[in-house]
Every structure is written in structure tokens, then in C-alpha cells.
Amino acid sequence: MKITFLGAAREVGRSAILVEGDGERILLDCGIKTKRNEEFPLIENSEIKKLTKVVLSHAHLDHSGYLPALYAAGYEGKVYMTKPTRDLIQLLLADALKIQKDWSPYNKNDVDLLLKNIEILEYNQLSKDKIIRFQNAGHILGSAMTEIFLEGKKLLYTGDINLRSSRLLSGCRTGLEADFLIIESTYGGKEDLHVPTKEATGEFISKIREVQQEGGKVLIPTFAVGRGQEILFTLENHLKSGLMNETTIFLDGMVKKALKIYRHNAIYLKKEVQRRILAGDDDPFKSDFYKFPKTKSKKEVFQSKKAIILSTSGMMTGGPVMGYLEKLAGDEKNILIIVGYQSEGSPGRKLLEGEKRIKNKDKIIDVKMRVWNSPFSAHSDHKELVQFVKSMKGLKKVFVVHGENEKLFDLADSVKSKNTEAIIPHLKESFEV
Ligand SMILES: [Zn+2]
Ligand SMILES: [Zn+2]
Fold first, then answer.
1. Separation of CA 194 and ligand 1 centre (Å)
2. How far is the CA of 205 from the centre of ligand 1 (A)?
3. What is the mean pLDDT of residues 114-119?
4. Full-prediction pTM beyond 0.90?
5. Which ligand ends up closest to the CA of 14?
6. Contact (CB, 8 A) for 185 and 400
7. Which residues partner with 358 through β-bridges?
8. How many Å lie between the centroid of ligand 2 and the Cα of residue 67?
9. Distance, CA 333 to ligand 1 centroid (Å)?
10. Is the pLDDT of residue 36 over 70?
11. H-type helices in 347-402, by residue range?
12. CATH fold of the domain at 2-191+378-432
């Protein structure tokens, strides 16, 4: 088997890994790196034409954003994914295309071609040719780890994983067997230790209570898909049970559309959530606490006494969240709660690092409102990633990807053993295994 890292090697973003063997040339993920100027996987068009299969781990654009470009470059084969991932990428890619407009590496036609060539695989179901199988990754709706069977050997690619079960999703599968592993390291640093969910929830709710008592509003930038839904359900749960004072939760941007997709794919959510949907009068997706601002001015949001606003984009690189930030940033009673991973150089990361001025298009926003990092995460922390690797059987080599420099080294250092070699690949580097 030959493995080549075309992206997400010593970086986060543009995940793309080429696996070759038994005459197959399989591409695992094909994402973009969202920055001011997007970066794409390091794959030539001539190479794209020679691919035999493509597999997508989950819908996030750092794994899926370059997929339509494969068809623009002449790829004619299938892309394997779970059903929820298919539904979610339709939403995310259509939106990405709207933002990219004239400099996009693909057009709507290519997105349509991609959608026509999707091959759905359920968790634990082996593909007809017995090469690909998905396992639950616990990261977002539909997220999968990929098992690849070639040359009599087995490779496991984690994509993004979360070992802990959350309000909506069960944690990822552990104890799998494989010869080789490619693992993410978003929070692989030794200092990356998540607090237990119960504690995180407690901190989150009491922070909001404190802000509301002082008369402030709460702004939560969120990815269309991921922590947003978990946060929403946590809030709904506390409001319904009276543990929080009545507040309206305003949903804006793609969070709303993604919520619909979550509900349509309820069979992929935890049993308990399915039961509540079936019960009818207790459907957590249709809570009276949610509101969707209709006017462009968002007057109702700013006029309401108490407001919690969830809006895209998650790293504050654009989207309706910026309009809310502009209005709320000047008042130190308000709070900005960051809930997801913020990539290096993104506005969200800069605010977390203490910057007080943020650029939005040609305007400068002076940020006086509080900025707080919520302890929720859709990724496993250092301890859990190590636990995941240690739970595996027969492992000979681990490739550590999808992480910032020191985190990769921390994780590699913690998972290597007498029998297992840990490697941090460089971009474009190949390995015969
Ligand atoms: Zn992800
Ligand atoms: Zn990712």
C-alpha cells in the first residue's frame, strides 16, 4: 500500500490523502483550507483523472470543499459517504459557491455532477468490492471513520473524531483492528484536556446567567454543522426544565437549514432524541424558544431584553454573525462565546488571543464585549486520542495529521510504542507500507 499526504499534513485544512494498492487509487477526503485566500489539496489534474474512488469522511469544508473541483478536472468516478453527509454537503457546497463566485475552482455543474455520483454507505456496511467500510466517528451528524482494505492489509483513517457521546450523537467506535492508522490531532497537544461535559455545561449555563443578570446579550458564532446543534439542545433543555430564565434563542444563517437536515436524519441521532421527535409534543427541533429573525435590520433581536444568538460563520470569517458582532461589540455587558475550533489567523482566534479590533470587510469593529471560550468541543482531546490509539489492535504505524505543529509532536510522542511507529508526514510525502 502507498499513502501520500496531499493536504492536512503539518496543518489543519484541505484534508486529502491518496491511498494506492491492488490497482486502486483512492482519495480520502478532498477539502479546502479556509483563509483569506483558500488553499487546495496538492493534486494535479492529471492525477485526478487517474483516481478510481473517492471517500468523504464528513461534511465540513476542510474535508469536502474541493470535491466538485475533481469533476471539473475530469474525474468520473464515485464518491462514497454516509447519507447525512450527502444531505449536509448539498447545503455547505451551495453556500460556498455563493461566497466564492468568480474565483471558484468549480461551478454549479460540477456540484451537480458530484451529487449524481454519490454512493451511500451505511456505518459498518462493506462496499460491494469489499474495499471500504465506515464506522461512527462521533464528530458531527454523519461523520465516519474509514476502513480501507487493500493488499491484504487494513488502513483506518479517523477523519475528525470525538470519543465522548454528546447530547445528539454517540461517541466514536474504539477497539478497532488495523495495520495502519491516520489520526487527526486538532486537540492533540498535551495541554489540550477538555473538561467533562457536565462541568462544561454547568460553566456555560452559569456564564450566560451572569451576563443576562447584568443585562447583556449573548452572541455565539457557530459552524452550520457541529457544536451549534449541541449548544442549542443544551439551551433548550435548560429552558424547558426551568433551570434557565426564559430567553429567546435567535437562529440565523445556515444553522437553521442544517437543523432541518439533522431532523430529517434523526435515525443517525441518539435513541433518546429520536424518542422525543416521535413523541410529537416534545420535539426538541421545534421548540417555542427558537426564533428566526426575518427582517434585515434584525430589529427584534436588538429590541428584546434577553437574547441568545446563534449564527454562522463559526470562525467569524463572514456571514450574518458579523452583523450581530458589529451591533453588540461596543457594549461590555454583552458576551461573545466561542464554541468551536478557530484556525490560526481567523478573526475568532484573534479575539480569543486578546485582540480588540476586528476587520469586517472595510469596517473596523472595536470589541468591548467580553470574549469567552466555551469548553465544548466536537473533537477529542489529547487523552482521548491517546486512549483511541491504545484501544486498537495490531497497529504497526500511526500517521498524525490535521493539527498545528506542537500538537502533532505531542500526540505522536504519546502514541508511539515498541510495536507502533508514529510518523508526522510532510505535505506531498509518500510512504510505502
Ligand atoms: Zn470536522
Ligand atoms: Zn477537520
1. 17
2. 25
3. 98
4. yes
5. 2
6. yes
7. 365
8. 15
9. 32
10. no
11. 347-352, 382-390
12. Metallo-beta-lactamase; Chain A (3.60.15)
At 269, list the grid cell: 441521532
363, containing H or E segment: strand 363-366
Which ligand is in closest contact with the Cα of 343? 2
Find the 185 Cα to ligand 2 centroid distance in Å. 9
Residue 379: nearest ligand to its CA? 1
Mean pLDDT of 225-233: 88
Whether 2-191+378-432 and 197-373 share one fold: the answer is: no
Rounded to the nearest angstrom, the distance between the alpha carbon of 244 and the centre of ligand 1 is: 30
Measured distance CA(342)–CA(356) in Å, rounded: 16
Q: Could you report the per-residue pLDDT of 312-358, keeping only the tens digit for each?
A: 989 998 889 999 999 999 999 999 999 888 988 899 999 999 999 99
H or E segment to which residue 259 belongs: helix 254-264
In the block, cell 458582532 appears at 325
Domain boundaries of the chain, sorted by first residue = 2-191+378-432, 197-373
Residue 121 Cα to ligand 2 middle (Å): 20
**Residue partners of 280: CB distance under 8 A and separation at least 6:** none
> Which ligand sits nearest to residue 12's alpha carbon?
2
User: For residue 32, which of 51, 52, 59 has the smallest C-alpha distance?
Assistant: 59
Ligand 2 is an ion; its neighbours by CB within 5 Å are: 62, 160
Which residue type is seen at 316?
A: M
Q: Which listed ligand is nearest to 225 at the C-alpha?
A: 1
Q: How remote is the CA of residue 12 from the centroid of ligand 2, in Å? A: 7
Residue 229 Cα to ligand 1 midpoint, Å, equals 14
What 3-state class would DSSP assign to 214?
Answer: coil
Longest dimension (CA), the chain: 65
Q: Does domain 197-373 have CATH number 3.40.50.10890?
A: yes
Distance 67 CA to ligand 1 centre (A): 15
- Nine cell digits for residue 186: 486538532
H/E stretch holding 207:
helix 197-213
DSSP 302-325: HHSSSEEEEES-TTSSSSTHHHHH
* Sign of the alpha-carbon dihedral angle for 289, 292, 294, 299: positive
Give distance in angstroms: CA of 256 to centre of ligand 2: 22
Q: How confident is the model at residue 279 (pLDDT cuts 50, 70, 90)?
A: confident
